[in-house]
Amino acid sequence: MFGAVFALIFYSSVLLFVVIRHIRHRDELDRWLQTSELDVSTIPDGGSGTWGDLFASLARFVRAHSQSQQRLSLALQRMQSATSAMPEGVVILDDDDRIEWCNPMAEKHLGITLEVDAEQQITYLVRDLQFVDYLAARDYSHPLVLKQSRHHKLILSLQLVPYGAKQKLLISRDITRFENIEIMRRDFIANISHELRTPLTVIIGFLETLSEENNVDAEMNKQALALMNDQSMRMLRLIEDLLTLSRLESTPNLLGEKHIDVQVMLNDLYHEAESLSAGRHVIKLNSVPETQLLGNEDELRSAFGNLVSNAIRYTPDEGEVTLSWQISNGQGVFSVQDSGIGIDRKHIPRLTERFYRVDSSRSRETGGTGLGLAIVKHVLNRHQAQLKIESKAGGGSCFKVLFPENRIVSKI
Ligand code: ADP
């Protein structure tokens, strides 16, 4: 009897001990789950047995979980630094078109700041009506070209790309340069068409007169042929200048460089100037220090020739045109000074643009194509040289070309 009671007490105590142990471990687990942020070092020690195995498995799970968390956050960091380096702007929008995230380029393009504008409706920040319509239309097969963004004078291409459940990516690209090139291309074609059309209209008019049956006035016919010849030459000059420009643009590197004797070249230019002026102006050539200039002779002759011919064309009879070459602070300086009609200050920055003319009728009357200074600028760029224009309306002009030291071989 005593033995049975003792055994009962013993088993009850063991059972109690086991139950208390279970309750203690369960409380430890509960406390850990509530307080710990999945920190493996705070996982209770379950000792040996079931709880020991359970806590060991838990530690393994937490370790694996934190490793995968680290991998995820590394991948996220990599993704963020990659999108930050992208030349495109990227904005993540939620279902209601609110900003979830954006990269620095999108901040720049759209004039938004992630810190301040997160969770704001994108249409509240990019208020352009075209954009609002584009977003609402939900047809994102084509990008939208936005001409005026809120900040800067950028031209943007905006493309929405739906992804995930209901999110959208808004991708912005700065296409200002391409659009400007496109505008230049359109203007250029319009200008050429206009330049060719005018002489052609004159020629066609004369051809009609000449082909009339009752046309017998020999003197008038002679004049008509002379004028047709002038107009044809004008078209030829234009086409030659266009071909020169296209050659300069299509061969990006300077070919056929050699040492050019500047004295010889300036002497030739001086004689060309005299024949162009045909005694109407006083042409001077200042003494030229013996120098050799490294460059492409044909290109430089054509550029200098353009400056000389301009000086004569824009200087009234009896005026003076002076050519000179100097070495100043190691640089070679070619200059053409004239006492001509001069140029108002406001026109000077635009003179090297194609077809830019201060006085179109004077330019055409004197055989100008409006491309001379554009050719000069191209040639000088290829020689790392600079064009400096000093002029004022009615006060003559001085066109200077400055060559860098490494292109000059001075004999003195
Ligand atoms: P163009 O064939 O019309 O002369 P350019 O490109 O050579 O074309 O020159 C552009 C414009 O610059 C000219 O139309 C003219 O108005 C002005 N220009 C150029 N050189 C001179 C100059 N020496 N004096 C006054 N105006 C000039």
The gist of it:
With 412 residues, the protein is of the alpha+beta class.
Question: How would you sum up this structure, described in words?
Answer:
- The termini are far apart.
- The chain has twelve helices and 13 strands.
- Helix content is 52%, strand content 18%.
- It has four domains: 2-81; 86-174, 2-Layer Sandwich (Beta-Lactamase), CATH 3.30.450.20; 180-249, Helix Hairpins (Orthogonal Bundle), CATH 1.10.287; 258-410, Histidine kinase-like ATPase, C-terminal domain (Heat Shock Protein 90, 2-Layer Sandwich).
- The chain is α+β, with helices and mostly antiparallel strands and 412 residues long.
- Residues 306, 310-311, 314, 338, 340-343, 351, 356-359, 363, 368-374, 397 line the site of adenosine-5'-diphosphate.
Mean pLDDT value: 90
- The coarse silhouette is elongated
Question: What is the first-to-last residue Cα distance?
Answer: 135 Å
Bound ions, cofactors and other small molecules, one mention each: adenosine-5'-diphosphate
Provide the low-confidence segments as ranges. Answer: none
CATH superfamily of the largest domain: Histidine kinase-like ATPase, C-terminal domain
Order of helices and strands: HHEEHHHHEEEHHEHEEHEEHHEEE
Q: What is the helix content?
A: 40-55%
Major sheet characteristics: 5 strands, antiparallel
Give the class-level CATH name of the largest domain: Alpha Beta
> How many extended strands?
13
Task: Supply the key terms.
five-stranded antiparallel β-sheet; Helix Hairpins; alpha+beta; five-stranded mixed β-sheet; Beta-Lactamase; single chain; binds adenosine-5'-diphosphate; 412 residues
